[in-house]
Specification:
The chain is of the alpha/beta class. It is built from three helices and nine strands. Its cofactor is Mg(2+).
Amino acid sequence: MLPIRNSAKAIIIQDEKVLLTKNKDHEGFFYLFPGGGQEHGEQLSEALKRECVEEIGCNIRVYDLAFVREYIGKNHQFAEWDAHVHQVEFYFHADIAAPLEAEVSMQGTNPDEHQVGVEWVALSALDQIRVYPAQLIPKLQDGSAKNVYMGDTN
């Protein structure tokens, strides 16, 4: 049996836009919140800072926990190749630590395998693109992004 994996994710909102990683698979483009796996002995906030440098090329400040989401792969549309995955994701409010003008490239040092870029997406347009987890979209759009356990969602 594989261990449960912890992951830290950033919700970075500025000027009614959210910063997401842009990824591509056989179905086309999809978007994820920047962040990733926690390493042994690493605090979630430190994991999130490291992952944001790797994926979006920015130093961030981490604030309050907003959501906790579980992903149990065997229960979702990607079960064919993801059935063994059980991940608990911690979504934190965050912002970029330096002005955007100082963040020249927005290119990560070690992007994920399917990542093709980084994009600011208008909150109002989130329901028009493929974003995971989709259940976060209405909460971000209506401003209820705080202290919510979302359970096993995709």
